[in-house]
Each structure stands twice: as structure tokens, then as C-alpha cells.
Specification:
The chain folds into 2 domains: 170 residues, 3-Layer(aba) Sandwich (Rossmann fold), CATH 3.40.50; 85 residues, no CATH class. Helices cover 31% and strands 17% of the residues. A hairpin with a 2-residue loop joins strand 3 and strand 4. Helix 1 packs across helix 9.
Length: 269
């Protein structure tokens, strides 16, 4: 019988592509359908708010993976006065309500795992991916692959990142055709939006050698075409445009070497 994997907050299916390559049956859950031209989630998709899921329905799963939204964690890690004020307000809330709200989706993943284990009577591993900025709020990650940080049942031996990895599916032209981001250094997830409510993109940023999109670096220093969409294309598209959503979804995809390694490690013998 084929092993079943569950992909929470599945987006365009970065986790799922690795799982499918290792011959899992995969069911993805997301609050919206991500379809951008020929690009779409590659397995069975259930449109459902993940917070409403009870883990008992995953009693037959061999593995659960998740990538809860990271916007607030990323925003508060930025060196902006509004970002720091937001962080300070959450830290100053002695009731813990704001911190609980911030980590609610992350906590939901582990609740679902606990419920799945209780229903199955056996251990079901789970790996959760997020950004570096989440460490401050949810505890130290167990590993990172470039800027993809991992919590949960992370194998002791993990693949190393290499400079200049080309990530399939990334297209910065603003069209719907799949393409490649040139030299996605260290497989880094690149923050591409301001999250202060302005709706404006980073206007003077570039993908530096570390792969992190750095404020204040001129486009002339950009490596490849990775940030061109956010410098030029984002200015032509609103914060809720399909082109902008597509770019964000592609950036958030788990690199195939990482997803396939996790899938292979936890696949039942």
C-alpha cells in the first residue's frame, strides 16, 4: 500500500513535489487554490482552513508536513521602526494573547499531529517549515536549508545547500509560464513584500551573495534576475494581483532536494 502524506498550507506544492517523487499518495490542504497559468498544486487538494481540521482524520498518514504563513515573522525581523514597534507591542502584552495569536497557525500544526497520533495509536512524524524570524517566537529550529528553517521530526542527517542552485518553477517575468530564477543562492526564500500595510514592494533591493534580499542594495549588484520582478514588476501590480501572488507562491516553495530528502527518510519500509 502506498504511504499517505499530508501537506498543510500546501501552496504550490513544494513539499508535495518531493513526496510524489518518493511515491507517496499526497493530500494537500490550503485555504485557497493556487493556480497560475499551467502552474498549480500537483496532487489532491482540499480547500479548508487548516485551523478547522481535527488530526484524527489523518490516522492513516505516514508523514505530515506543513508550511504555515511566515509574513509576520519575516516582517518583525526587518530593521524598520514599525516592525520593531510591532514586536515590542507583542512582547509587552502580559496576557499572552498577542503571542498566542502570532503562533496560532504554527501551534495548529502540532495540535493536528497530536490528534493524529492519538487516533492512530502509533507515532506519525511531522516536519514544519518556516523562516528564521520564527525562532524567537516558537523556539529554536532543528535545522535550516538556506533560509528554509525546520521544526519537528527533522532527520539528524540533512542535505547541505549549494551555491547557485537553480529552482524550477520560478519565473520573474510576470507571465504565467514556468521558468527559473537565476542563481537562487543557498536556496533562499526571498522576502518580497512590505508587510506594513503600505502595499509597496522593496524598491532598492537585490539578491546578495547570501541569497537574502537586502534593503538598500542597488539593482546593479543583483545576481541574476531574481529580484527584477519585485523591483520592476511589483510596481506594475497591486499587492493582491495574481502576478504578485504567483511570485510569492513560487518563492515559498520548498526546494526539491529538501522535500525529497524528508520524504525518503520517513517513508515506511
Amino acid at each position: 500500500m502506498t504511504a499517505l502524506a499530508i501537506d498543510l498550507f500546501c501552496g504550490l506544492g513544494g513539499w508535495t513535489e518531493g513526496l510524489l517523487a518518493e511515491r507517496y499518495d499526497v493530500v494537500g490542504f490550503d485555504i485557497e487554490r493556487h493556480e497560475y497559468g499551467a502552474e498549480k498544486y500537483p496532487a489532491q487538494l482540499v480547500l479548508q482552513d487548516v485551523t478547522t481540521i481535527h488530526g484524527s482524520q489523518f490516522r492513516d498518514a505516514a508523514l505530515i508536513v506543513a508550511s504555515p504563513p511566515c509574513q509576520e515573522f519575516s516582517y518583525m525581523a526587518m530593521p524598520w521602526s514599525r516592525a520593531k514597534a510591532k514586536q515590542a507591542a507583542i512582547e509587552a502584552d502580559t496576557t499572552g494573547v498577542e503571542r498566542a495569536r502570532l503562533t496560532a497557525l504554527f501551534d495548529t500544526c502540532f495540535r493536528i499531529q497530536r490528534e493524529a497520533i492519538a487516533a492512530s495509536g502509533r507515532y506519525i512524524p511531522m516536519v514544519v517549515e518556516n523562516v528564521r524570524g520564527a525562532n524567537k517566537w516558537v523556539g529554536r529550529s532543528r535545522w535550516n536549508y538556506g533560509s528554509f528553517f525546520l521544526w519537528g521530526d527533522v532527520p539528524a542527517l540533512m542535505p547541505m545547500t549549494n551555491n547557485g542552485i537553480k529552482n524550477p518553477g520560478m519565473n520573474w517575468s510576470g507571465s504565467d509560464k514556468p521558468g527559473y530564477v537565476a542563481e537562487a543562492f543557498n536556496s533562499t526564500k526571498v522576502p518580497g513584500f512590505r508587510f506594513d500595510g503600505s502595499g509597496k514592494s522593496f524598491q532598492s533591493t537585490a539578491v546578495a551573495e547570501t541569497g537574502v534580499k537586502q534593503p538598500g542594495i542597488s539593482g546593479a549588484r543583483a545576481n541574476g534576475k531574481g529580484d527584477k520582478w519585485f523591483q520592476d514588476g511589483a510596481a506594475r501590480h497591486g499587492s493582491k494581483s495574481s502576478a504578485r501572488k504567483a511570485a510569492a507562491a513560487r518563492i515559498a516553495k520548498i526546494p526539491l532536494p529538501l522535500s525529497r530528502h524528508i520524504a525518503a527518510y520517513w517513508k515506511p519500509a
